[in-house]
Amino acid sequence: MAAQIAPAERLLNLVIALVNTAGRMTKEQVRTSVAGYQEAPSDDAFERMFERDKDTLRDLGIPILTVTDAGHGDDIGYRVDLDAYALPPLDLTAGELGVLAMAAQVWQDQAVLADTSRALTKLRAVGDAPESTDLVAGLAPRVRAGGGAFGPLVDAVQARQAVRFTYRAATTGEVRERTVEPWKLLARRGGWVLVGRDRDRGASRSFRLSRMEGSVRTVGEPGSFTAPSADELADALQTWASGPERVATLAILPERASAPRARAVPAPPDEPDWSDDPLLAHRDLVHVPFRAEWELAEELVGYGDAVVVLAPAGLRQSVLHLLRTAATLDREVGTDG
Amino acid sequence: MAERASDRLLRMLGMITYLDRHEGVPVEAIAEQFGVSTRQVMDDIDTLWVTGTPGYYPHDLIDFDAASYEQGVVRLTESRGMTRPLRLGAREAVALVAALRAVEAALGDAMDPERAAVLRSALAKLTVATGDAAAAVDVQLSIDAAPDVAAAVATALRHGRRLHLRYVNASDVTTERDVDPVRLVTDDERSYLLAWCLLVDGERLFRVDRVLSAEVLDADAEDHEVRAGAEVFSPGAEGELVTLHLSSRARWVAETTPVDAVRNLDDGSFEVDVRVVQHAWLRHLVLQVADDVLEIRPARIAQEVAAAARAALRAYGEMI
């Protein structure tokens, strides 16, 4: 036998041994019979090597079962559960593999990227031919990094295990410990959000991952909270859903605000008659569809006097509010010269 | 960098599965399938050849047809029961399915039917293979392009054609230019077209929601050297340094704007330093967060923004 056996080779030998074992293999059997473990210089070194290898394999998705033999007291054995090991029947064409390869690169998060490249290696084994990138040429979708909290939260959502973290509230700036039953992670405009049940409040809440400070710890055992009902989840997600499409009526100076103009739609049928509005003597009437009022208000305010909102009233008020506040900026702030 | 043992293990397991499904595969084809060098494939095969079940006698080992291997073709003759493909781990499945769903939702409509069909079939197969795991994560990408613009960009990218764009910048100035498209970069905020602009003879990022119209030209796009990282907006050191002191509610600014530095203050408020190249952009940002601005340095910026706001209020018929 070779003097030095590489870790990958030792791991492979361990998997093959645990897949093929008649019933189970004890730690001692692994040590004496699986190639690569004889090199461990001491009991301790073997223990560490074997524990680490088991963790590595489980991390890769290889299901190692712990089997105790009633006849042998606390003598623990191991085997790989081959039914849980295998991917359901799957064949992928070169094009499908290409699409998956693109999806594997979407994540900007190094830890998640490592997960998706592993997934891709596994899927390449069932691909008919090397991935074809023709179909996805030129597309580069990206999902921003969720930070260190992302991985532990995904695991906690799937394990239905409560989590505790330090959170800086946006409204007050208050920093406090939160204990949350995690339901779902959302990537939305402006970053990652955890939706779940805040145990202290006894109600569903949303938390931005970027405002979690320090690490996310699990609380209690896996499976220790009841999954939300469909209604509860839908309620909690309501905040993050986009509303029905509405149409804003704008008066825009000639040649200005080309971007909203490009999205213009015909006037809605119930449109009031604006022709008497003195503004329109020098401005064009433009109708722009929108879903989130705040989002359109924040866009339009950037055009300054080039765009005046005529309707709906709520949008007009939002824009006016921003303008009135901004109009006093040079009085209240910036006095440091 | 040395490859991690776990990554190599996965690939070697994958090779057994793959070689069990494909009778006799040239080393080059295996290298291409798994995205590694032929040297690496041969190393892997050599390792596979000496692994097996305890005992490690010839009949215990994974085996290949030696005569065929000498001709550079790998033929698996003994797999030791390792032919079943390994399932995806929970997090692997979540990440991949979520990404694919987001791509489908954002880009599916802009793709031609052939591409959209492949995307959908990949998603369907993967969903069947991974079960409901992906419900944990929901990603939304923003494309924000007019449908005809999205379609023109997709066609030009697919077929390597030049595009004629009408584009409006942050200062509300419209220009017309021909570009050779490189990539469509889509994230949860918005989409950008990275392209070589023939007007300035350099790479440029175009916000797709500001492309007023796009026409596919009857000319092939040329290949251009594009700087690594060109698809990320970076403020650049040449801009003016502006400091915004904001109350806690405006924390999204630090999260969504390319900032030089963020300082958290004890009262929950915070300061961000931003490099400003386009003043129109900064004016817009300050107007959006007006409610939460505690201080702006230099003060001149606050005066400019306030003046712009007063001009707008006059248009609404309000005097301040």
From TrEMBL, chain A:
<feature type="domain" description="WCX">
    <location>
        <begin position="283"/>
        <end position="327"/>
    </location>
</feature>
<dbReference type="InterPro" id="IPR026881">
    <property type="entry name" value="WYL_dom"/>
</dbReference>
<feature type="domain" description="WYL">
    <location>
        <begin position="150"/>
        <end position="213"/>
    </location>
</feature>
<dbReference type="Pfam" id="PF13280">
    <property type="entry name" value="WYL"/>
</dbReference>
<dbReference type="InterPro" id="IPR051534">
    <property type="entry name" value="CBASS_pafABC_assoc_protein"/>
</dbReference>
<dbReference type="GO" id="GO:0000502">
    <property type="term" value="C:proteasome complex"/>
</dbReference>
<dbReference type="InterPro" id="IPR057727">
    <property type="entry name" value="WCX_dom"/>
</dbReference>
<protein>
    <submittedName>
        <fullName>Proteasome accessory factor B</fullName>
    </submittedName>
</protein>
<dbReference type="Pfam" id="PF25583">
    <property type="entry name" value="WCX"/>
</dbReference>
<keyword id="KW-0647">Proteasome</keyword>
Automatic annotation (TrEMBL), chain B:
<feature type="domain" description="WYL">
    <location>
        <begin position="149"/>
        <end position="216"/>
    </location>
</feature>
<protein>
    <submittedName>
        <fullName>Proteasome accessory factor C</fullName>
    </submittedName>
</protein>
<dbReference type="Pfam" id="PF13280">
    <property type="entry name" value="WYL"/>
</dbReference>
<dbReference type="GO" id="GO:0000502">
    <property type="term" value="C:proteasome complex"/>
</dbReference>
<dbReference type="InterPro" id="IPR043839">
    <property type="entry name" value="PafC_HTH"/>
</dbReference>
<dbReference type="InterPro" id="IPR057727">
    <property type="entry name" value="WCX_dom"/>
</dbReference>
<keyword id="KW-0647">Proteasome</keyword>
<feature type="domain" description="PafC HTH">
    <location>
        <begin position="7"/>
        <end position="127"/>
    </location>
</feature>
<dbReference type="Pfam" id="PF25583">
    <property type="entry name" value="WCX"/>
</dbReference>
<dbReference type="InterPro" id="IPR026881">
    <property type="entry name" value="WYL_dom"/>
</dbReference>
<dbReference type="InterPro" id="IPR051534">
    <property type="entry name" value="CBASS_pafABC_assoc_protein"/>
</dbReference>
<feature type="domain" description="WCX">
    <location>
        <begin position="241"/>
        <end position="313"/>
    </location>
</feature>
<dbReference type="Pfam" id="PF19187">
    <property type="entry name" value="HTH_PafC"/>
</dbReference>
<dbReference type="InterPro" id="IPR028349">
    <property type="entry name" value="PafC-like"/>
</dbReference>
